[in-house]
Structures are given as structure tokens and as C-alpha cells.
Design goal:
Blueprint: E1 2-3, E2 9-15, H1 26-34, E3 37-42, H2 60-74, E4 79-84, H3 86-97, E5 102-108, H4 117-130, H5 136-143, H6 150-155, H7 157-169, H8 172-183, H9 189-194, E6 199-204, H10 212-220, E7 225-230, H11 237-240, H12 242-258
Parallel strand pairs: 2-3, 2-4, 4-5, 5-6, 6-7
Antiparallel strand pairs: 1-3
Helix pairs in contact: 1-12, 2-3, 4-8
Length: 267
């Protein structure tokens, strides 16, 4: 985990996508720190050197509780919680389990529903395949391009190569564990409906893994949320469109600074 303690702005937690690590947020983190915010970029269990307990049953609730303990250790009571893909699912688990600790919420490329049986089965099959030494390299090469939009793939081949290299170096048992945890997650629409904190759902128009209709459904569940669509962007907006990502988060942080919960009084 990287943590900048300087600045008087709201603390911001950035949660990464699968199969990447917290470095995917480096550019966004630098920009937010320059604006005075304390930014924590978190490596979820099994990634970026964070250990994966051998006996843990795959569950994003465990990852959410990891984050709560890390915030305790860092002396952070509450934060703006931002997640991309797997990070978004962890953010929603955190909201369900620790709602009072979420000052605002940003979800990039993450649906509020649980996986369909077909979708969960596909994740579980991927988890089995990625654990096979003889198949891993081909599986990563075949599936990684879908993380980026068609425009990015065509115009930024270096980014595709970078993301593929990161995917190749990810610990396969960690990737498999995470896929099984995501497949087992519960729906979060009720938790999203129950919160009134400022929120944003950001969706790449070229995302091949989460549909725009799914993003609309997620955003519609949020009483104080909005949907932002990103033309020419796929599943990884923080890498494909870092400037737009920072713009979205800066707007959300301003809303969070001004937000007063229902029933709150002012002096």
C-alpha cells in the first residue's frame, strides 16, 4: 500500500482491478495528492506483495475487512472509496459491511448485481485454467485484450503490452482466488440504494466486460449518484483515460466535501 499523509483534503482509497495491482492508480494518485488529498493505493490480498492466506475461503467480504483493518492501522476513520472492476466489487462489499466509513463512492467498470450462473461458471472455469501451468501464458494472452477498449488497443499498443505483462506476472493462485471470490459475491443494489453519499458510476463505452445497461442499473440504485460514460474507453479507465478519471474523482471529492448526511445539523 502507498499512502501520502500530506494534505488536508478528504482521504481517498483507490482499489485496483484484476489481475493488476495498485500501480494502475499511480497517475491518478499523483494528481489527487497534488490537489491536497491523502491517497491510499491498496494492494488487495494476493497482489502487489500482499500475502494471500492459504486457508482463506474466497470472499470479497474478507478483502473488505482487510481494508477496514488497514484504515484502522492508518488512523483513517472514513474515506472516499474508489474501485475499478474487482476494486469496485470490493468497494461495494466494504459499503455493505462498513457503511459509516464511506464518505463517497466511485465505481469504474463494476456492476451492482451478482454474477449470473453462466457468468459465475465462466469465472470458475477461468480460475481453473489460470492455475494450469501449461495453459496460463496462452490464457493471459487471449483474455487480456478485452480489458482495454478497441480504440485503446488500436492506438496505444504499448499500453496493451504493459497490461499484458502485468497480467503475466500476477500470481496465478491469487488470480484464481480473486475470480472465485468475485463469482461468489452477493448483489449490492440494496446497499447502494441504502446510502445517500455522493457517488458516481463511470463506464467506458467500449467496455467488453460490463455493459452500459448494467452501469445504468447500478447508477439508478444510488439516490445521490450519477452515471458518466467515457467514449473510446474500455474496462480500465484509470489507465486508458487518466485525465478524465481524475476529473471525475475531483468532482466527486468536491461533492463529498460539501455533503451533509440526512438529519445532520449545522452550527
Amino acid at each position: 500500500m502507498s499512502d501520502s499523509k500530506t494534505g488536508a483534503g478528504l482521504p481517498v482509497v483507490l482499489l485496483h482491478a484484476l489481475p493488476l495491482d495498485s500501480s494502475m492508480w499511480d497517475e491518478s494518485a499523483r494528481a489527487l495528492r497534488a490537489r491536497g488529498h491523502r491517497v491510499l493505493t491498496v494492494d488487495q490480498r494476493g497482489f502487489g506483495g500482499t500475502p494471500l492466506p492459504a486457508d482463506a475461503v474466497p470472499s470479497l467480504d474478507l478483502v473488505a475487512d482487510d481494508l477496514a483493518r488497514e484504515l484502522d492501522r492508518r488512523g483513517v476513520d472514513s474515506a472516499v472509496v474508489v474501485g475499478c472492476s474487482m476494486g469496485g466489487y470490493t468497494a461495494m462489499s466494504f459499503l455493505r459491511r462498513h457503511p459509516h466509513r464511506v464518505r463517497a463512492l466511485a465505481l469504474f467498470a463494476a456492476r451492482g448485481t451478482a454474477d449470473t450462473p453462466k457468468g459465475a461458471a465462466a469465472r470458475l472455469r477461468f480460475a481453473d485454467l489460470i492455475s494450469d501451468d501449461s495453459l496460463r501464458a496462452r490464457i493471459v494472452t487471449d483474455t487480456t485484450p478485452s480489458l482495454l477498449g478497441a480504440t485503446t488497443r488500436a492506438q496505444r499498443p504499448r499500453l496493451l503490452a504493459q497490461v499484458t505483462a502485468l497480467a503475466q506476472t500476477a500470481e496465478p493462485h491469487s488470480v484464481a482466488w480473486a475470480q472465485r471470490a468475485i463469482a461468489a459475491r452477493e448483489a449490492s443494489l440494496a446497499a447502494l440504494s441504502a446510502t445517500d453519499v455522493p457517488a458516481v458510476v463511470a463506464q467506458g463505452e467500449e467496455d467488453e466486460l460490463v455493459t452500459l445497461d448494467e452501469a445504468r442499473e447500478t447508477a439508478a440504485a444510488l439516490s445521490n449518484g450519477r452515471l458518466v460514460t467515457l467514449p473510446g474507453v474500455g474496462h480500465l479507465a484509470p489507465l486508458e483515460a487518466p485525465g478524465k478519471t481524475v476529473e471525475i474523482l475531483t468532482s466527486l471529492l468536491a461533492a463529498a466535501q460539501a455533503f451533509r448526511p440526512a438529519g445532520a445539523t449545522t452550527c
